[in-house]
Amino acid sequence: MTRNINTLLWLLVTVMAVRLGLTAILPLADTTEPRYAEIARIMAETGDWITPWFDYGVPFWGKPPLSFWAQAMSFRLLGVTEFAGRLPSWLASVVTVFLVYKLRRYLHPDRGSEASRISGLWAALIYATTALGFLTAGTIMTDSFLALGCTLVLTSLIVRLQGGPELWGWLFFVGLAIGLLAKGPLALVLTGLPVSLWVVLTRRWLTLWQLLPWLRGSLLTLAIAVPWYVLAELKTPGFLDYFIVGEHIKRFLVSSWQGDLYGNAHEFTRGTIWLYLIAASFPWGLIAIAAFARNRWHKRTPQHQWQPREKGVGGLVLASALSPALFFTLSGNILWTYVLPGLPFLAVLVSSLWPDGFTRPVPASALAAVLVIPMTGTAAGGWIAIHPEQLKTERDLVARVDQLPGMTAHNLVYLDKAPYSARFYSQGEVHAIDEAVVIHRLEKGILPEPMALAVAKGNKPMLRRLEALTAPIEENRRYRLFLLKTLPESTAHTSDRKSKTGGIDYNATNDRPLS
Global pTM? Predict the structure, then answer.
């Protein structure tokens, strides 16, 4: 059995190490990662720890600051890199994995046995190798911190129900504060729903009251979370109305909600969230369904896997796993990441479905299930690292402009709108310019400074206009880059008499600045 423990521990450490490695080699691709990374970068640059800024002078009211705080501190400590931006999410995932391990051990009949350690490691490994669990473990998003907060809340309650120490009662309220600072009141809903279902069905109202320090714990939650909300509203009035009413009511009830200041609404058929749950939990969700059906068919019940000390604890774990999907069932404006807070508890459930409890040597089929997502992720990550041009990222284009003689990212200008990844990789130096302004400057020959102009490939009229004057010097998946330089004043006057191009040197690419 000790050999089994070592094997499982080695697998878990390897999976998390592989995910950490991928955070360093993959570029940030538009839209989600570079958008949040740029918000955190601006926070680190300006030292404004109250208001996250969508752009300089534009407040970001869409999310609380916990993830941005963590990423900004990482940028200050480690520099502005992909690895530094993703590290906080990985650390949050590591803590979540540990909580899954602890929860599964507390549910085992013999908490201190090697069998309970095996069960705990299996549950942790299952969570870490779900499709969404593996993905979000190294992604610049707020969801990892929401999942951490929700997992801490519900794990703390279940551990207390299983006879755990009073410290877990206080951690329940710390988890609520983490959730409020990570995603807002949604954390109260995703944790309150399973607890409410459990207490209503089991009528354990008194037990729930006695196990947790409700008065002092609630004050602790308020003391941690509320000051930021107050300061944010005072600094940028209107925040609470947008965030509470818009983001937490209209976003989920109005599929075509047009009030989103920072993105677009996502309209899907009601009930789509359950398909997302299957995809997010792959391969373990499908394995769980098959294992459950097999046990029912053969009328087998896993033995010595589950020993609740209070009535309905198993139901509480089930409700915790399914509450995100239940809550978003009637919502059309959803993303698949919304089911993430339920995956830790789904992993606990899945780990209890095998009759032998995995006490025997790890079977080949289980090993294959463990490796499918990490191996697929590693293969895909390696291919992307070799072919970054296949992603919607401006990393290489920004780097190429920085290499041009006498130019920096400040000279990189995007037509109409600069992508988030360009803003991040240039550390806020790139600009956007209106198409009408460019056309005017082309016609008048007015160019205040050298310009590397990036034009979207879909803008055919503008591309034809520029290509009639000069050839692009570089392109990526989305943009073509044109290099326009000013001529000396005397030369410009001569050009004015001989050419309609005025003071713009459309042959600047003859210098062959890019090899």
Answer: 0.91
